[in-house]
Amino acid sequence: MDNNKSIAVIYKSKYGSTKKYAGWIALKLDADLYEISDIRGKDLKDYDVIIFGGSLHAGKIKGVDLIIKNYDMIKEKEIIVFAVGLSHEKDKLLNSIMEKNFDEEIGNNIKLFYLRGSFNYRELSIGDKAMMSILKIDLKSKKDELDEDGKGMLEAFNAPIDFCDKKSIEKVIICVNENI
Ligand SMILES: Cc1cc2nc3c(=O)[nH]c(=O)nc-3n(C[C@H](O)[C@H](O)[C@H](O)COP(=O)(O)O)c2cc1C
């Protein structure tokens, strides 16, 4: 790895999984670590490699506007985004995250990864509980037709689940090391 390259890891996390992954990645890469509110868009130009991590919320990557709004300023840099969610990593998942969050130009220029997070219904904010309750009713009504993801989600309302796995950051680390 070229140690002269400066790397920023920036994250937006509501319940802690994305923060955990960002911390693991920053430590491994000896990068500067920022919670999203602690960095301004213009500070991004100080870095050669920008790694952004955000949790998935109804398909959207929280906080990723920081990358989108500043894209013209940072487009010559190495940009890596990791999304943290509960779904299983299926073939189409990355494509669907890409389509819901980025236009074609940005999509072609960034590297996108998916990491599995955690879920504890009891700890959710009131708004998130309301949103998830609607999902729960929907899942229950389709109980017999649910795929693995749906069944897992339904079970998660009763018992907290945590898929955070330090080993899964390896794909992000390899990507950074290959490109700098
Ligand atoms: C309201 C709500 C919406 C969610 N939407 C998605 C989603 O669209 N896709 C997904 O894979 N996970 C979804 N999740 C699961 C979160 O992404 C998961 O809990 C993640 O670990 C949260 O990250 P954080 O701990 O950094 O806040 C959702 C969770 C909540 C509470």
Automatic annotation (TrEMBL):
Domain Flavodoxin-like: 7-158
Gene Ontology terms, MF aspect: electron transfer activity; FMN binding; menaquinone-dependent protoporphyrinogen oxidase activity; oxidoreductase activity, acting on NAD(P)H
GO BP terms: heme biosynthetic process
A Pfam short name: Flavodoxin_5
Protein known as: Flavodoxin
